[in-house]
Amino acid sequence: MKVLKFGGTSVGSVENMTNVKNIINDGEKKIVVLSAMSGTTNQLVAIGQDIEAGNSAAAVEKVTTLHETYKVTVDNLLQNGDLNASVKAYVANVFSFLESCASKTFCVNLENQIVAQGELLSTYMFNAFLNQEGVSSTLLPALDFMRIDENKEPDIAYIKENFKKVFEATPDSEIYITQGFICLDTEDQISNLQRGGSDYTATIIGAAFLAEEVQIWTDIDGMHNNDPRHVENTHPISNLSFDEAAELAYFGAKILHPQTVTPVRADNIPVRLKNTMEPSAHGTLISSVTAGDGIKAIAAKDGITAIKIKSARMLQAHGFLKKVFEIFETYKTSIDMITTSEVAVSLTIDDDSNLEPILAELDKIATIEVDKNQSIVCLVGHEVVNHDDTFRLFKILQDVKIRMISYGGSQNNISLLIDSKDKINTLQKLNTYLFELVTP
Ligand SMILES: Nc1ncnc2c1ncn2[C@@H]1O[C@H](COP(=O)(O)OP(=O)(O)O)[C@@H](O)[C@H]1O
Ligand SMILES: N[C@@H](CC(=O)OP(=O)(O)O)C(=O)O
């Protein structure tokens, strides 16, 4: 059995929901994971922000506007009178809950309940649509089986056991619809797998019952060799290894949640990226097979903070780096890139929520310089470090100021740290030097 995940755009309009219905209605039993309709999660996050800022009038206004768009969608989607009425009643219930949130005190639990409504809405509506179209489907509530542990990692044993229970309770269905992104935490409160987390839901479920394949259906024909939002002349990559896909996802290729391949790689479950609007396109197959050496793709991750730690104590001394790493460990902050010289070490973090106490500790042992608004540009491909054409990368030095380079840490990844304002220019130049010019 396969797991098919459809993202926000794929369920973002009646036309696209019809495409999804046609893709899944092939007589095979399958699990279908849905995201919220595109734009909804952003609106729900904005409603939470209004509540946090104490602006309940603005929150109510956003709730009302969003409700209006849902009423129109339900009318366009469901012509069957009974289904239309029952779905409208469900939708009205969700929006009256959201309105009631506007006058509550903000807390993370409240925010999580608010953002969870997007997936609850899309799955309820889509399941009713399938029923209207005569397709046999069952809604499996993700909150009955999807749970994260105290480290916010999926609780695989719990998920396996509970997924089996809910799945086996309705053995005769052909299509099982469930919500991506949302889950419970250890206190049984609603939580989520972070933005873009529906991809992760799909591979967690795929791993839970050893699916034959996980398919991620989106609005583009697979993983491209560069960010198509910023660079012209990108092209889809037909095959990626788990390692290559994991690096690209972690370093910012938005098409995949950073953790997408983690649950499935050990069991060698392939992940196929497909285009809902063009189902016949090959897309990208992510598997244990490595196809070819050299640079395959470039991705960029924003919101990086660089910290330079300079100390004469480093000179011919040992143990300094240990002290530095312990400080980051204490504040549960992971380090992405690192470069060293005899008297200084530069490193990057993508989570600066504990930056102040980290800097206060570092300040006791060294002189510190901090640069915010940095981006990591990451070049990925099997044996990229050893490939003959990789030298072309260094032509970039004539165009952009590079703050750090990580080369050789892994055979499959070269990372550059640049100021975020140079990101688009860097991605474009790298595209030209690495993929477009035949001779350097
Ligand atoms: N390297 C890349 N390859 C393909 N798409 C990319 C890449 N980098 C960024 N994207 C963007 O990712 C988008 C798809 O991801 P996302 O918006 O999360 O889709 P969905 O809503 O279907 O989950 C594409 O429309 C594209 O603009
Ligand atoms: N709706 C969530 C989860 C998700 O995965 O969305 P999408 O598949 O549209 O990226 C979000 O917007 O983050």
UniProtKB/TrEMBL annotation:
Q: Does the keyword Secreted apply?
A: no
Q: Where is the Aspartate/glutamate/uridylate kinase domain?
A: 2-275
Return the EC number. Answer: 2.7.2.4
Reactions that this protein is recorded to catalyse: L-aspartate + ATP = 4-phospho-L-aspartate + ADP
Q: In which pathway does it act?
A: Amino-acid biosynthesis; L-threonine biosynthesis; L-threonine from L-aspartate: step 1/5; Amino-acid biosynthesis; L-methionine biosynthesis via de novo pathway; L-homoserine from L-aspartate: step 1/3; Amino-acid biosynthesis; L-lysine biosynthesis via DAP pathway; (S)-tetrahydrodipicolinate from L-aspartate: step 1/4
Q: Which InterPro entries match?
A: AceGlu_kinase-like_sf (IPR036393), ACT-like_dom_sf (IPR045865), ACT_Aspartokinase (IPR054352), Asp/Glu/Uridylate_kinase (IPR001048), Asp_kin_monofn (IPR005260), Asp_kinase (IPR001341), AsparK_Bifunc_asparK/hSer_DH (IPR042199), Aspartate_kinase_CS (IPR018042)
Q: Which residues form a coiled coil?
A: none
Binding positions for ATP per the UniProt entry:
5-8, 218-219, 229
Which of UniProt's keywords are assigned here?
A: Amino-acid biosynthesis, ATP-binding, Kinase, Nucleotide-binding, Transferase
**Domain Aspartokinase ACT spans what residues?**
377-431
* PROSITE patterns in the record: ASPARTOKINASE
Q: Which GO terms describe its cellular component?
A: cytosol
User: Which biological process terms from the Gene Ontology are attached to this UniProt entry?
Assistant: homoserine biosynthetic process; lysine biosynthetic process via diaminopimelate; threonine biosynthetic process
Task: Give the top-level enzyme category.
Answer: transferase
Give this protein's Gene Ontology molecular function annotations.
aspartate kinase activity; ATP binding
Q: Is Amino-acid biosynthesis among this UniProt entry's keywords?
A: yes
Record Pfam families = AA_kinase (PF00696), ACT_9 (PF22468)
Task: List ligand-binding residues for substrate.
Answer: 41, 119
- Family (UniProt): Belongs to the aspartokinase family.
Protein name stated in the entry: Aspartokinase
